[in-house]
User: Which sequence fits this backbone?
């Protein structure tokens, strides 16, 4: 059974920091890309960040670039999204997702390219 479990969400003041973790288990391959997306009420799901299976490539959405850092600890099947300088507009439910390579190009910023999703964790940034 595949599981992606996010943790670390919560309430923080603007300018503060949070660290989100996503622990994976049961994936059919040890080689899988990971992504983070977020969705605010009434808005579409938005790409936040992604990291390749080897960890040598990372990508960020324009709205979080230079504030968020994504890393992975393959030995622990975990990815960590470090979020600094948080703004009220960062308020959303954050989801991690896994893409198992299948010979098709990995469009890291497209949510429909991911095969498995976590249940989401709420991040609220107060002004």
Assistant:
């Amino acid at each position: 059974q595949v599981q992606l479990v996010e943790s670390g969400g919560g309430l923080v003041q603007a300018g503060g920091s949070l660290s989100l973790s996503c622990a994976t288990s049961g994936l059919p391959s040890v080689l899988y890309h990971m992504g983070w997306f977020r969705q605010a009420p009434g808005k579409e799901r938005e790409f936040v960040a992604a990291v390749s299976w080897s960890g040598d490539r990372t990508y960020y959405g324009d709205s979080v670039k230079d504030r968020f850092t994504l890393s992975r600890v393959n030995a622990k099947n975990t990815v960590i999204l470090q979020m600094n300088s948080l703004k009220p507009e960062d308020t959303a439910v954050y989801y991690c997702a896994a893409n198992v390579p299948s010979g098709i190009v990995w469009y890291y910023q497209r949510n429909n390219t991911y095969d498995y999703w976590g249940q989401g964790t709420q991040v609220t940034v107060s002004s």
Remarks:
- The chain has no helices and eleven strands.
